[in-house]
Design brief:
The chain contains three helices and 13 strands, in the order E-H-E-E-E-E-H-E-H-E-E-E-E-E-E-E. It has 181 residues and is α+β, with helices and mostly antiparallel strands.
Length: 181
Amino acid sequence: MFSDWKVLYTKPRAEKTAALDCRALGLDHYLPLRSATRVYQRRKVTFLTPLFPGYIFVELPDDMRGELLSRGHVVRIIHVLRPIRMLRQIAMVRKALKVDPEVQAVDPITEGEIVRVGSGPMMGCEGVVTKIGRKKDKVVLTISVDIVGKAIPVQIERGLIERLIDNKTKTYRRVSSSETQ
């Protein structure tokens, strides 16, 4: 039944063990794993790591909750409001992992967010996302020079930027389009 699908939030680095618990209890589950390659002392090692660290998707009837929680690897069970939508998204994740097993999860960035460039030649620059490219791999970042009342748009790869968080409210800072000009 679709309404039984939940998301498990696990203890750190316990996703695979929690998935084994689900298997032992006979629960349908999905732990999306991606390929990662590291070099250790001139040796290349490839291993599987969770695509979404800390999360497992599981079909969990209410009568099995206590038994799963008692095994000690699951911290919280998150109820899904729209399970059919989640299952469609999981199907898309499966397809993406088949096409590219090394795919990585990123935080979605929207227009109007204040971001910082985390790496590359523009590292440390802050600005407002004013446009997102059609393929969503590039964004236009507007860097303002307040004293002269001007700004310059810079096109940059999506993977190089990170959100800035408002420390007072612990929320992502957003600006309106009137503030970006």
